[in-house]
Amino acid sequence: MAGEIISQVTGPGIPLRGNDIDTDRIIPARFLKCVTFDGIGEHAFADDIKGLAAKDETHPFADARFANGAILVANKNFGCGSSREHAPQSLKRWGIRAIIAESYSEIFHGNCVSLAVPCFTADHATCAKLQDAIEADPAAELSIDVAAATITAGGETISLEIQPGAQGQYLDGSWDARAGLLENLGAAKTVAEKLPYVSNYA
Amino acid sequence: MGQNLYHKVFDRHCVGQLPSGQYQLFIGLHLIHEVTSPQAFAMLREQELSVPFPERTFATVDHIIPTTGSGRQRPLQDPLAEEMLQHIEQNTADYGINFFSPEKGEQGVVHVVGPERGLTQPGMTIACGDSHTSTHGAFGTLAFGIGTSQVADALATQTLAMAKLKVRRINFTGSLKPGVYAKDVALAYIHHLGVNGGVGYAYEFGGDIIDHMTMEERMTVCNMSIEGGARCGYVNPDQTTYDYLKGRDYCPEGEAWERAVADWQSLASDADAEYDDVIEIKGEDIEPFVTWGITPAQSVGVSQDLPQVDSFADSDQLVVREAYEYMSFEEGQPIIGTPVNVVFIGSCTNGRLSDLREAAKFVKGKQVAAGVRALAVPGSQEVARQAIDEGLDKVFDEAGFQWREAGCSMCLAMNPDQLSGNEISASTSNRNFKGRQGSPTGRTLLMSPAMAAVAAVEGKVTDVRKHLEN
To answer: Nearest C-alpha of chain B: how many angstroms from A82?
Structure first.
C-alpha cells in the first residue's frame, strides 16, 4: 500500500527563529485532549501567538504575510521534548508541507516521516539566509526538489541535506512504514519465538 | 572487542533490514495510555488491522486523570477527559489488552507501573507513545518514545522501523556529596551535554555512582535521557536490578527465574565493549541543580548565579534571552532565594516511593510556607498504598501539602492540576518548557524532591544542604 510520492514541495515559506522550540510550544498539552487529530491545526503555537500578541508582536503563525506558508524554516533542535504526534499533525494541518531546520529531535523527525512531511537540514547560515529571504518577500514561491535535496528561492538553488532513507521513502511513497512491517509479520513471529522472555523463560 | 548491551539487545530483536535502511525491531513490551493511543486504534479500525500480540501491550490512564478523590468520580467532570478515558477502556476491551485501571487499583503513571509490576525486564525492547519511556532503560532495556502512527505500527505488527543509534557511555565517577540526588545527576549530564547532545545516541550510564544507585534512582537518571536529546538511555543490569525484580507480578519464578538472571547477565555490556563516545562526569562536581530557564539544560548549581547571556555560543543566545524574558529573571542574579508559589512532587521522574520518602524527611514536623500551594502526587496507586502504609501521607498532610491520588498531574497539567498566571513552581518533573505546567505564562524550576521539599517549607529556592542533619 504505497502512499503519495513526494518529489517536490512548492509554496511560500514561513520563518520561525530560535533554537529548542519544543513540541509543547508547537501544540500546548491542553489541545491534546482529543481522540482524533481533526481541527488540531488551528491550535499550532497557540500560546506563543498569545504571548507575543500581549507584547504587540506577531508570531509567524499568526502573521497574515505567512498565512499561506508551506515550507517552514526553523533553527536547531526543532521539535524537542514530547513524542506527541499532535505536534507535526498540527503543523501539517496548518499547512506546512516541508521543514528546513539546523537539526531536529529524533522522535519529532520520525513522526514527520510517518506524516510525509519531509524534514531537511541546513547549517545556521543557510537557515538564516532563507528566513531573511522569506521575510523580505513572503509571497515568493519556494521550490524544494526532494531527489536533489535543494531549495530554489529567488532564482538561487541552495543545497540541503536529508536522511537518505527518508528521502527514498518520500520518492517511492513508502513513508508509511506499516505496510512494510506487516509484510514481515511471519518473520517477526519467528523472532519472538526465540526471545526467552516471550515464554517467560519457561 | 566486546559488545555493548544496546547492540546485543538490538540484534536479538532485529527482524530484518527495511528498504529505507532502517531495521524492523520486535517490541517486547508496548505500553499505551489515553493521550497518544486513541488515534492509533482509529488507524487500526480504518485499515481493518488486528493486534497479533495483545498480551504484549499493557495500558493505563495517567495524563488526564484527576488526582483528587472527588475529581475521579465518573463521569469525569471534563467531558474531553471522560471521552479519552472511555476510549482507552473500550479500545483495550475490544482488542484484548490488559488495562491497569483506577477501579482495580492498578493505575499510575505508565513508567511507574511497568517497573513496579515487573513487566519491565532486562534485555527487552520497550516502546510507548511517550518520550519518557527512556525511564525503563534503568533495567537494561532499549526503551524509547514513539509517535501515534508508530503506536499503530506496534499494535498491528508488534514491531517498529528503527534506525540504529550510536552509543555514548557516560561514566559518573567518584561519589555524590550529601544533598545531591539522582535528579541532580540527570540535570548535570543534560547541562554538560546540552538538550540536543544526545541526538543520534543511546546513552549508557555507568560508573561507581550509577552502580551504587537503587533502581528508583536509576529510573530518574534514565527518565531524563530524552531531555538531553537521547531517545533512550540505559543502565546495565546487575544484582540491584535482579533484587528489585524478584517476586514481582510478571517476573518468572523458580528455575525460570534462574534462567532469566543468567540471560540478563549475558546481555550486560562486555568489559571491553566498544562505544562511539565515552565521557566522564565527576560526582564531586555535581551540586544540587535548579533550572532557571525554558529548557532542562538551562540550569545552575543552587549556590551559583544565573549565567551571563554572552557566556553562551552566539547561536544559543536567542533562546537564553528568550528564557530570561519569559522567566523575568536577570543574568547574574542568584537562584537561591527565588520565591516559589507552587511545589509539585511527583511525575515519572520523581513520583516513586523513595522520592516521597526523601521529600517527607524535609517536611516532617514543618509547615509549608504561607501562600505556597504544595502537591505530593504518588506515581501510582501502588506507590500511594505503600506511602500510606508508612504514614507519608500524614507527614505531607500535616505539613500543609495536598496529598493526591496517582497521575501525571502537574508535570504536564492535562488534568485540573495547573499553575495559574505566572506562578513559579518548584517541580520534581522533567520539563521546564514555556507553559508546560498548564499556564501559558507559568514558570517551572526543576529540582530534586528534597530541594522541592525545602522550597515548600521556606517558600523560596533553598540549598537543601542547609537542612541536612548533622
So the answer is: 5
Residue numbers in A near B231 (CB within 8 A): 106-107
Tens of pLDDT, residue by residue over B133-192, are 999 999 999 999 999 999 999 999 999 999 999 999 999 999 999 999 999 999 999 999
What cell was used for A108? 519529532
Q: How many CA atoms lie within 13 A of A16 on its CB side?
A: 32
Least CB–CB distance from B157: residue in A28, A29, A188: A188
Q: Which residue has the cell 540491584?
A: B240
Q: Where are the alpha helices (DSSP H) in chain A?
A: 23-26, 46-53, 86-94, 106-114, 124-136, 164-172, 178-183, 185-194
pLDDT digits (tens, 9 = 90+) for B293-345: 999 999 999 999 999 999 999 888 999 999 999 999 999 999 999 999 999 99
Residue A178 phi, psi dihedral angles, 5° rounding: -60, -45
B247-290 pLDDT per residue, tens: 999 999 999 999 999 999 999 999 999 999 999 999 999 999 99
Q: Any chain A CB within 8 A of the CB of B267?
A: no
Reported pTM: 0.97
Exposed / middle / buried, residue A121 (Cβ in 10 Å: 0-12, 13-18, 19+):
buried
Residues of chain B with Cβ-Cβ distance to A202 below 8 Å are 252, 256
Question: Mutating which of B117, B119, B133, B196 best tests the A interface, going by the most A Cβ atoms within 10 A?
Answer: B196
Q: Which domains does chain B have, with CATH numbers?
A: 5-162 (3.30.499.10), 166-285 (3.40.1060.10), 289-467 (3.30.499.10)
> Under an 8 A CB cutoff, do B159 and A181 touch?
yes
Average pLDDT, chain A: 96
Chain B interface includes A192 (CB < 8 A): yes
Whether the pLDDT of residue A12 is over 70: the answer is yes
- Whole-number pLDDT of residue B226: 97
Does the beta-carbon distance from A195 to B257 stay under 8 Å? no
User: What mean pLDDT, rounded, does chain B reach?
Assistant: 97
Cβ pairs bridging A and B (under 8 Å): 228
CB of B186 less than 8 A from some CB of A: no
First to last CA, chain A: 39
Q: Which of B318, B435, B438 sits opposite A19 (nearest CB)?
A: B318
Domain spans of chain A, in order of start: 8-174
A179 in contact with B at a CB cutoff of 8 Å? no
What's the whole-number mean pLDDT along residues A12-31?
97
CATH code for residues A8-174: 3.20.19.10
ipTM above 0.85, yes or no: yes
Query: What is the chain B residue with the closest CA to A84?
Result: B147
For residue B282, how far is the Cα from the chain centroid?
23
Going from the C-alpha of B157 to that of each of A112, A185, B50, B51, B92, the distances in angstroms are 20, 6, 9, 7, 16
